[in-house]
């Protein structure tokens, strides 16, 4: 499949993916019930499938990844405490400061220059309450770490952080919006990447191409609490099997193909590095996200790309982002690279 609406190569995000024919068929044929009563069989199937794949006892289908993260804050964080997270994490930067209103916690950002948290930094922060600093209730990690060009956490990086958190009595949540990308890139199971966490969420509506929804996984007790909090946030759904059916298809058919997106992202990164030296380190591109330094690119790059039928975006004032996905094939990447070449060497 080629890119997108009206012939546009859309690299702004993998959220722009469209459902497959199989997903549309499954949605049309879905058996449904009232999910707020726990009676939608297709939602139950999706939740059971997700929990099993992540090695957790239970799961909860929610409208968005942001809601999943906010639910985790409400059930793992304690009001009046701090939650540790990465300085560039989604929960800290891209959820409209929702933690303060939804969970009454204070997010405390830790350095994440390498795209991960350091166990030593977590331990140092955890010692703070013994020196008149706020109590800490939880640690949030993000895998893949989007602003670090979608860098996946290695097991050797995750285990020290979760071990330190456990030693200090801190709960652990993983914002695994793109955990399937991490698993494919590293050649490990998502269950291994979820080990040591109390909760983990992932998005169905990014690289997996489903139209709506994310899933929060954890223990039965925690998910039962999250179900109540979902209702408080207005996230209770009725005949949600219509959209959950696409999520089942996504998990069953769309994971392995993420490797194609990773290869195309690397191809794009190689071109950017060649055309705009210093903009990208291609060796840092392991999944489907390419974050480029804005100061190494033309100031009007995005406008020039749009004029050539290519869309990209920004995540902050310093970073231009390109994201590959199912709806951009080899021809779409070639078209984007051609557009970059014309911009780099105007006639």
Q: How would you describe what is shown here?
A:
This protein has a 7-stranded mixed β-sheet, sandwiched between helices. The N terminus is likely disordered. Helix 2 runs parallel beside helix 11 and helix 6 packs parallel to helix 7. The protein is built from 14 helices and 12 strands. The chain is globular and about 60 Å long. The protein is α/β, with parallel strands linked by helices. The protein starts with 8 loop residues before the first strand and ends with a helix. It folds into 2 domains: 101 residues, Aspartate Aminotransferase, domain 1, CATH 3.90.1150.10; 233 residues, 3-Layer(aba) Sandwich (Aspartate Aminotransferase, domain 2). 41% of the residues lie in helices and 16% in strands.
SSE topology:
Layout: E1 9-10, H1 21-29, H2 41-54, E2 58-62, H3 65-76, E3 82-86, H4 90-93, H5 98-102, E4 106-110, H6 119-126, E5 136-142, H7 155-167, E6 171-175, H8 179-186, H9 190-194, E7 199-203, E8 214-218, H10 220-232, H11 241-253, H12 258-275, E9 289-293, H13 301-307, E10 310-311, E11 313-316, E12 319-323, H14 330-344
Parallel strand pairs: 1-10, 3-4, 3-5, 5-6, 6-7
Antiparallel strand pairs: 2-8, 7-8, 9-12, 11-12
Proportion of residues in extended strands: 15-25%
Annotation field: number of helices: 14
CATH topology of the largest domain: Aspartate Aminotransferase, domain 2
Tell how many strands the DSSP assignment holds: 12
CATH architecture descriptor name of the largest domain:
3-Layer(aba) Sandwich
Q: What is the CATH domain class of the largest domain?
A: Alpha Beta
| Strands side by side in the biggest sheet | 2-8-7-6-5-3-4
């Amino acid at each position: 499949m080629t890119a997108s609406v009206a012939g546009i190569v859309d690299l702004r995000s993998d959220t722009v993916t469209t459902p497959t024919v199989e997903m549309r068929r499954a949605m049309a044929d879905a058996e449904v019930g009232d999910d707020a009563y726990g009676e939608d069989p297709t939602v139950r199937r999706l939740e059971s499938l997700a929990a099993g794949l992540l090695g957790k006892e239970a799961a909860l289908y929610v409208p968005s990844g942001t809601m999943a993260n906010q639910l985790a804050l409400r059930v793992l964080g304690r009001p009046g405490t701090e939650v540790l997270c990465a300085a560039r994490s989604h929960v800290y930067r891209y959820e409209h400061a929702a933690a303060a209103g939804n969970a009454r916690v204070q997010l405390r950002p830790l350095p994440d220059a390498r795209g991960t948290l350091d166990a030593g930094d977590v331990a140092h922060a955890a010692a703070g309450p013994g020196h008149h600093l706020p109590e800490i209730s939880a640690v949030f990690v993000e895998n893949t770490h989007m602003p670090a060009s979608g860098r996946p956490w290695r097991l050797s990086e995750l285990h020290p952080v979760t071990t330190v958190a456990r030693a200090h009595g801190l709960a652990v949540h993983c914002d695994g919006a793109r955990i399937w990308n991490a698993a494919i890139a590293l050649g490990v199971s998502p269950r291994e990447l979820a080990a040591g966490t109390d909760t983990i969420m992932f998005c169905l509506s990014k690289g997996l191409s489903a139209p709506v929804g994310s899933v929060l996984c954890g223990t039965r007790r925690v998910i039962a609490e999250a179900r109540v909090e979902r209702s408080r946030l207005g996230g209770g759904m009725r005949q949600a099997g219509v959209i959950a059916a696409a999520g089942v298809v996504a998990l069953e058919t769309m994971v392995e193909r993420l490797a194609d997106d990773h290869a195309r992202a690397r191809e794009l990164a190689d071109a950017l590095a060649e055309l705009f030296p210093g903009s990208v380190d291609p060796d840092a591109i392991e999944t489907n996200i390419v974050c480029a330094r804005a100061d190494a690119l033309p100031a009007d790059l995005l406008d020039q790309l749009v004029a050539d039928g290519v869309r990209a975006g920004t995540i902050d004032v310093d970073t231009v982002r390109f994201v590959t996905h199912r709806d951009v094939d080899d021809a779409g990447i070639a078209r984007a690279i051609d557009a970059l070449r014309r911009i780099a060497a105007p006639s």
